[in-house]
Amino acid sequence: MIPALMPTYNRADLAFERGDGAWLYTAAGRRFLDFGAGIATSSLGHNHPHLVAAIAEQAGRVMHVSNLYRVPQAERLAARLVEASFADSVFFCNSGAEANEGMVKLMRRAQAATGHAERTRIVCFDGAFHGRTLAMLSATGNPKYLSGFGEPAPGFDHVPLGNMNAVRDAIGPTTAAIMVEPIQGESGVNDAGPRFLRELRAAADEFGLLLGLDEVQCGMGRTGRLFAHEWAEVRPDVVSTAKGIGGGFPLGAILATEAVARHLTPGSHGTTFGGNPLACAAGNAVLDVLLAPGFLDGVQARGRTLAAALERLIAARPDVYEGVRGHESAAGLMIGLRCRLPVADLQEAALQEELLVVTAGDNVLRIIPPLVVSDAECLEAADRLARAAERLAPTQDRRSAEPVREMAAS
Q: What share of the chain in percent tops pLDDT 90?
């Protein structure tokens, strides 16, 4: 008999009663170090006092009014995002898939409005993940996700990430835009790299295309900059973001330059829940923290601590762990740990050590803790990954694991 809650997930047999910073607690009192952050979503960790207070205060006033009326909280959040980014205007929605749908619609509409209605196709990349709607599954292009859902939505062409010759070959008279994640999360934390992003910008300019960046996962401080593309010093036309923007409250956004955004005229796009007072109160509270002096520098520093600890782990257990992936500068808290043993087994072993991590493609453990994590917690996570390795492949010389444990205890 099917359960009342549709069985669309292979859920771990765990339920968390409360959280505090980078830690989650079960009703039985088990304490887990959360290095998954709700899949890079709980950017301020759990029970962050400023975020909790902002949500509670707004919930006690008004939660939802619809976009038939002004929403001052959304106006403020949009203005702050514009001030802190490349963008001139912002549209709010509820999720990453919606943000990406809106980004595609916006890029196609901008081409049509400027005399190029034939330009509808989007160049996308192998290994991408853009969401679970029918159109975004087609943009993702993974046959596993498309199976059983009928014909893919037309208009998406896929090429290998990092291959500019393939990009140029894919561009034709009906191409509207290029859509890329600066760092692919789902397929194994694959960094597009600053040079490739700059080359994409140049190609878009050369052929009259728009450059849309999917920063649903790698944006909102995850790499130690507000947006990952800032490392490449590239100015996109459109960016989608979600996940960490609301600190766990559902919120997504499309940021765009004026030249593109002005084509989303009244009636051309919409949302019932998007940008409501409660969601934007959460977004403003998150931004208060991310934009505070020194915070993003701290994310970079803790990212270096974590990356260094993982490199020591690999040196200690090369039979289990193979390499670290992420932003090429090793900045920020979006790191992939490629494994030699099956990644699902290592995730389960980490769970037994009360460490939460997320799997990704190419046999990679995705390590994406809250942005408020401490250096000590980064070292503790590496120590628990060492113990997870020991569970699956006990060492003959147990001293090989000691350097990681000693660093974690220091």
A: 93
Buried b (16+ CB within 10 A) or exposed e, 360-377: bbebbbbbbbbbbbeeeb
Q: 74-94: per-residue pLDDT in tens?
A: 999 999 999 999 999 999 999
Question: Phi/psi of residue 255, each to 5°?
Answer: -110, 140
Mean pLDDT for the stretch of residues 65-82: 98
Q: In sequence order, what DSSP letters do the residues of 34-81 get, joined into one string?
A: ESSHHHHT-TT-BS-HHHHHHHHHHHTT-S---TTS--HHHHHHHHHH
Give per-residue pLDDT as tens, 129-156: 999 999 999 999 888 888 999 999 999 9
User: Among 3.50.30.10, 3.90.226.10, 2.60.40.10, 3.90.1150.10, what is the CATH number of 16-34+294-409?
Assistant: 3.90.1150.10
CA gap 112, 77 in Å, rounded: 29
Angle between helices 72-84 and 277-290 (to 10 degrees): 30
Task: Find the angle CA(105)-CA(182)-CA(101) to the nearest 5 degrees.
Answer: 15
Chosen CATH of 50-290 out of 3.40.50.10860, 3.40.50.1470, 3.40.640.10, 3.60.21.10: 3.40.640.10
What is the pairing mode between strands 210-214 and 175-180? parallel
Q: Which of 32, 1, 6 is nearest to 19 (CA)?
A: 32
CB 309 within 8 A of CB 404: yes
Looking at residue 277, its pLDDT comes to 98
Indicate the pTM of the whole model. Answer: 0.94
